[in-house]
Automatic annotation (TrEMBL):
Its main location: cytoplasm. GO terms for biological process: maturation of 5.8S rRNA; regulation of gene expression. Coiled coil: none annotated. Monomer and homodimer. Keywords: Cytoplasm, DNA-binding, Nucleus, RNA-binding, rRNA processing. This is Nuclear nucleic acid-binding protein C1D.
Length: 134
């Protein structure tokens, strides 16, 4: 009798987890639909578009990774592992480029023009000063 109860509790737990997976999949699908809205994508800067494309690619590859796991296939021996590694490198490169652009010192053009103008300025010589120096 205890074995039957154990099987039943195991089945209830499995059903509960499957329901959770299904609900998470629906929420993910809703977010993907929102993220694929062209009106939002068109408003993004080039840097944000790069981040968006990398995020979407990585997310879809991760979903495929999970699919392979549910099918009993070892994803570490599948081509998806190489693709995920490639995307991770691309994400790191995009981050480096973004950090370089945000941390790079900028020149204040107006201030630079003032420095140059003031360093080239020579005072006018008064005629009185010229007469006194003679």
């Amino acid at each position: 009798m205890d074995a039957d109860f154990e099987d039943l509790s195991h089945n209830v737990e499995l059903i509960s987890r499957l329901k959770q997976l299904y609900q998470a999949t629906l929420r993910f699908e809703d977010r993907i639909d929102l993220a694929n809205d062209p009106a939002i994508y068109d408003k993004l800067s080039n840097s944000d578009k790069i981040k968006y494309n990398l995020l979407m690619s990585y997310s879809l590859n991760s979903m495929f990774w999970m699919y392979l796991r549910t099918e009993g296939i070892d994803p570490t021996k599948h081509q998806i592992k190489n693709e995920n590694d490639r995307l991770k490198k691309s994400m790191e490169r995009a981050k480096q480029i973004n950090d370089k652009n945000t941390l790079m010192p900028r020149v204040d053009k107006n201030a630079a023009q003032r420095f140059i103008r003031n360093s080239l300025w020579e005072p006018k010589v008064n005629e009185k000063d010229n007469n006194e120096n003679k």
